[in-house]
């Protein structure tokens, strides 16, 4: 098990290659796009706000397991998402996530190998994707926002791209029965103070989703600790 953790928490820049890019394109750009348009009537607003380079981190709010492939389906670059390490303990899911370019993260203690991977993504044509809430939230609320994502932005000198997701929590299977709205905000410029970045992300996500932010106790001591 220790071997798997080491392998899947650290990736070289060369591993964000054409093979994984094609696989993500095939699954997300083709497969998920058809499902999202047919079942969820997805609307995406703010694509013009996405920078042309890859010096940013994609940071949506989180409502369901649909969110990562959904965001990847319309994003102009391939996205390497962080995924909790427990998912890599499941053989098929581990294989699937690895092929999609995802890598594992210990939400309680960010390992050096994960930090190395985050920095190496900048050397590729991909961008990093993660959910500042750490886990799925309740519709209408924004909770559990740590400074970990802002700490990674500080380490890599990246901007933050806030993405507001509305409606992905409603599981639908019949055509045209769902409705998902995606609002992409303005880039949050690099700032060496993680708390300023955190507060700006919260502000924009509230505006993009209409959800209300609720401060949890001991938020800063929760997942994704980055000094």
Helix content: 25-40%
Number of helices: 7
The top-level CATH class is Alpha Beta
Span between termini: 27 Å
> Strand tally, please?
9
> Architecture in CATH?
3-Layer(aba) Sandwich
Cα radius of gyration in angstroms? 16 Å
For the biggest β-sheet, the strand order reads 1-8-7-2-5-3-4
Beta-strand share of residues: 15-25%
What is the 3D shape?
globular
Output the helix-strand order.
Answer: HHEEHEHEHEEHEEHE
At the fourth level of CATH, the homologous superfamily is Glycerol-3-phosphate (1)-acyltransferase
The CATH topology turns out to be Glycerol-3-phosphate (1)-acyltransferase
Number of domains: 1
Mean pLDDT: 90
Description:
This protein is α/β, with parallel strands linked by helices and 227 residues long. It has a single domain (2-169, 177-220), classed as Glycerol-3-phosphate (1)-acyltransferase (3-Layer(aba) Sandwich). Helices cover 37% and strands 16% of the residues. The protein is built from 7 helices and 9 strands. It has helices at 2-9, 18-40, 67-74, 91-99, 112-121, 148-156, 194-209; strands at 43-45, 56-60, 79-84, 103-105, 127-129, 141-142, 159-166, 181-184, 212-213. Strands 1-8-7-2-5-3-4 form a 7-stranded mixed β-sheet, with helices on both faces. It has a two-stranded parallel ribbon with strand order 6-9. Helix 4 links the parallel strand 3 (79-84) and strand 4 (103-105). Helix 2 (18-40) crosses helix 3 (67-74) and helix 6 packs across helix 7.
